[in-house]
């Protein structure tokens, strides 16, 4: 999804929740500033649906919650809230909140040209401070490629690059699948400049 900053005064989380309930589109809250989230490409949407379906089916019957792009994540220890494309929490603390989760073990972002640098940089810097997060998966919507940021047992983040023919391994939810499963029947081409 594409984010655009709105020109408002700084909002508290409570003001943000109240204000956003009256909006037609979603907004992230970062350091008190509101950012509108606009839609992505057809491939972006199809890939996101496939991920949430794949994950939710895999976790059926577990105590985990699978979220799509409508589920906010509170950045642990802050008043910041984001909308990733998909997420999973298996943490009981997230069963006590109704407007967001705080302790995801998996976050998936579908990349677009306008958000890729932020997803790889600033957003990951916020997410990786969460002790519950184990897997942060960045998914291309223009080619068969995924980058998995995985936190190992020592607490170090490793980057695993996947391409056509590879099997994705999400240890956070014990799920392995061929990369092509997500890209089936899609026409992949670079995003237009304009």
Automatic annotation (TrEMBL):
Q: Which SUPFAM superfamilies match?
A: Restriction endonuclease-like
- List the InterPro entries hit by this protein, alphabetically: Nuclease_put_TT1808, Restrct_endonuc-II-like, Uma2
**Putative restriction endonuclease domain: which residues?**
13-172
A matching Pfam family: Uma2
**Segments traversing the membrane:** none
Write the protein's name: Putative restriction endonuclease domain-containing protein
């Amino acid at each position: 999804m594409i984010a655009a900053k709105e020109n408002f005064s700084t909002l508290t989380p409570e003001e943000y929740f109240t204000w956003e309930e009256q909006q037609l589109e979603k907004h992230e809250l970062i350091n008190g500033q509101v950012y509108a989230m606009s839609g992505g490409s057809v491939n972006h949407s199809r890939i996101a649906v496939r991920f949430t379906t794949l994950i939710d089916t895999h976790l059926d019957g577990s105590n985990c919650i699978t979220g799509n792009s409508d589920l906010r994540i509170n950045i642990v220890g802050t008043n910041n809230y984001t909308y990733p494309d998909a997420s999973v929490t298996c943490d009981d603390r997230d069963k006590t909140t109704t407007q967001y989760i705080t302790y995801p073990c998996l976050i998936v972002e579908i990349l677009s040209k306008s958000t890729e640098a932020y997803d790889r940089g600033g957003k990951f810097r916020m997410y990786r401070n969460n002790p519950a997060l184990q897997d942060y998966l960045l998914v291309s919507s223009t080619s068969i490629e995924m980058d998995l940021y995985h936190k190992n047992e020592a607490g170090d983040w490793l980057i695993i690059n996947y391409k056509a023919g590879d099997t994705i391994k999400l240890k956070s939810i014990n799920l392995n699948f061929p990369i092509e499963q997500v890209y089936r029947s899609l026409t992949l081409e670079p995003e237009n400049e304009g």
